[in-house]
Specification:
By secondary structure, the protein is mainly alpha-helical. It has one domain.
């Protein structure tokens, strides 16, 4: 099992990097986060489509939807 570093230790190690490397790391992390969120959205869409196909969804008016959200 890989060793997990504490968040503070990671920040300390990043601060030791040259600024250009820190910037590159920021870009890489940002792109990975975007990809992760994209995968989460794709998974939620897949679930929603399966639920719709299985008849788990019904058409509702905006008013009904707002009432359901508010309750």
């Amino acid at each position: 099992m890989p060793e997990v570093m504490a968040f503070g230790n990671i920040l300390d190690e990043v601060e030791k990097l040259p600024v250009d490397d820190q910037d590159l790391l920021r870009e890489i992390i940002s792109k990975r986060i975007v990809e992760c969120r994209r995968n989460q959205i794709a998974s939620e869409i897949k679930e929603a489509r399966a639920e719709y196909k299985a008849g788990g969804c019904r058409p509702v008016s905006v008013d009904d939807l707002m009432k359901e959200i508010a309750s």
